[in-house]
Amino acid sequence: MADKNSRIINRDAEETHVRSVGFLGLPGGGAEGAVDVKNGKIVRIRPLHYDWKYDKNKLNPWKLEKNGKTLEPLMKSLPGTFSLAYKKRVYSPNRIKYPLKRVDWNPDGERNPQNRGKSKYKRISWDEAAEIVAGEIKRIHQEYGPLSILTQQEGHGENKWLQGPHGMPTLLLRKMGGYTQQIRNADSWEGWYYGAEHVWGQGLFGHMFPANNVIKDIIDNSSLLLVWGGDPETTTWGFCGQLASRISYFWTEIGIKQVYICPELNYGAAVHADKWIPVLPNTDAALQLAIIYTWIKEGTYNKEYVATHAVGLDKVEAYVMGKEDGVPKTPEWASPKCGVPEWTIKALAREFAARITSIVHFFGGGLIRGPWSSEPARLECIMLGMQGLGGPGVHQCQITWHGMPRSEKIQRNKLYTFGSSSAGTEYDFENRVMYPMRGNSRVNQKQFFPKTMFHEAILNPPCNWYGKSQCSAPPEDQFIQYKYPADGCPEIHMIWTDSPCMSTCWNQGTKNVEALRNPKIEFVVHQHPWLENDTLFADVILPACTTYEVDDMMPNYWPGLQFSNMMYMKQAVKPIGESKSDYEIAVEIARKLGKEELVTEGKSLDEWFKWTYESLGLPDVISWEDFKEKEYYVFPIANDWEKDSPGFRLFYDDPEKTPLPTPTGKLEFYSARLAEHFPDDLERPPIPKWIEKSEWHDERLSGERASKYPLLMMSNHGRWRMHAQCDDISWTREIPTCKVRAWDGYMYEPLWIHPQTAAERGISDGDIVRAHNERGSVLCGARVWERIMPGVAYVDHGSRVDWILPGELDRGGAINLISPEKTVSKNCVGMASSGYLVEAERVSMVQMEEWRQQYPEAFEREYDPASGLRFNSWVEGDI
User: Fold this and answer.
1) Which H or E run contains 344?
2) Rounded to whole angstroms, what are the CA distances from 820 to 449, 508, 673, 834?
3) Alpha carbon distance, N-terminus to C-terminus of the chain
4) DSSP E strands: which ranges in 738-787?
5) DSSP assignment, residue 116?
6) Which residue ranges of the chain lie beneath pLDDT 70?
7) Fewer C-beta neighbours within 10 Å, C or N terminus of the chain?
8) Are 561 and 243 in contact (CB under 8 A)?
9) Distance, CA of 817 to chain centre
10) Confidence (pLDDT) at 414
């Protein structure tokens, strides 16, 4: 591809192709990039220049101005670091090169489920692998019925669409009688989903919604931003890139004060915070209650607004002021619970009330992912409501998740996608919104269970829970009880997964080992590009291509992107080894069953691409030939985007004319629905409260378990990976905050610990540390510094598991292995993966040697510090 503009094309490359280089793994896309290829190999991955093949002026770039300063889009995209380093992942030594079968699994004899995660593998042909999978499907159907097959086909992944990373097996199974569906429940936004929805309505995942133009309105009107439990310099990278960083810098340039409230001095706080207020993990509710107490006592809230826009403040006041239980929720009461000095709490409450204040997140971090996280979520809604939510500069801002200028409207405003992993996902191009009824996040089968119930469903059936837990379910669904097995349905006996990261990314991963080794699970098949995490518990492993090895299409219209666009992504390099696309894998299995047409519906992939192009209304803006030649189309910004009412402004102006989607149409500080449906729920009562302990959790420093496990574990989205993706990129592993090289040469996941807390345990920077509780042990590398408050241990989730003893001791730093199995609360089935109790202790050379003698096979596996465990270490024979 020759181009006169040398700054946007690499003249050394033989060819350059566009790619969606984020890791959302579903429609909405992510940060855009361009991949340069030479001699059939990826040379580099770099930002895409929007004006490579389009006139900048015709894109109608948005512009935000204040105090003589301007923020406007760059003409190049802003992908995160690991997106740009991703060629190291494509060519990882941990790629699965060909189909594998566990050496001691015999479909016609002994299956040895107890050895999953321990046994090695041997190479088999695609023909044999497809025959085995097809044969197991037929056998399971005959012996138990179609619903005995569980699909794990959801979650984040590479940005592929028609050949998507998730959901391809369901193209076959749903037309063969169905399957049991694992629902990708509310994760990363647990508190909003189970809490905020009961204050301001469903919103989007429970976030404040609509949220049009909140970024512009904040720039125009806000004077204080509370970045509460979020990190705009980290969490956005894997989704939409680094626009959040540019916005945060601009807020500083125009004089908007930013206060970060979080246990750790995260990367956003380090460069943007005017003040950092450390708060103990999962204690935000105490701090919030004390702020509300101060406002009520001093009369510094918007009484007129509350009288007309909210219901239930009288009940909140009775609890906060101590009339209900005799305990006023004063700053003095809150301080020992949350670790924030009482004078800081008072100062924060007064400044919050005196300034025009918005609260900023990107989902919410540890604030929203711990035990009882419904409570701080609801309290945040109440705080914003008490200060005039929806008024000029008063918003909840999920930075770059929504709130940016909208794109020009195309013919079809709301669009439905091709039926793969994105089946039923609804798009609103005009408002740059994705309604996420995505793949297995949308219940479409008779039998299902939430992802958080996986262990329970296998180990302790029957089980029941409230709410489908799907992302788009209305709040009313949380009052409906469901059960597994469903009436007339069998238990599961086979698992087909394309998202093998339950151990490292979900609740109490050690339980995953027990569940997958249960003899009732007779067959486990995984398809994945890399041999990592749960793939080591499969009986048959099928090698899948990365996005760079397939042709595909991808819509990129996250509000966190500078422009919405649509990509025609041509294959950049040939598949590694014998890998096939996820779609081709489904076709291969279907062919062995004589059911290929069930998957293809009689269309070639090219025909599906053309069908999708037409279904999206793209012929109205670009011809098919031009689209394939240019490989991308950029939607111009709408001319009238500034006229969009910001956030809840219409509700603010007239709550009767524009009510909220709640039973009263107002902010419900008191939820009559929760009182009606769960009158005895002490974990999520009708008004939000401080929960010290419950039948579901004992994770406070005041609890009995704290005498043995006296540290609170903080876990957040990783800085150098996207959940479990990208942990084997050699370039990022060299960074001291990515991995810690210990005295044994192993690259450990960092555990942040304060010097005072470390000294009490004899821990020095760089030591090997065992983080543990009764659920198991995880080895990490100590990073001793003052970027974390005393009494807290901080480990990013998502590190690749490296079992020393499966189910008990991990060397890889996968901290979710020891997070609570129990959900947010008894009636809220989200994860509680941050703010739980652990202890940390230094691992001596003597202790390590004892483990080496006890478990020699774990220490003899091939390992490279640059990329971690290798494919070779798990495969026998000629490779």
Assistant:
1) helix 342-354
2) 18, 5, 28, 9
3) 37
4) 740-741, 747-748, 750-753, 768-773, 776-784
5) T
6) 1-12, 27, 409-443, 879
7) C
8) yes
9) 17
10) 36
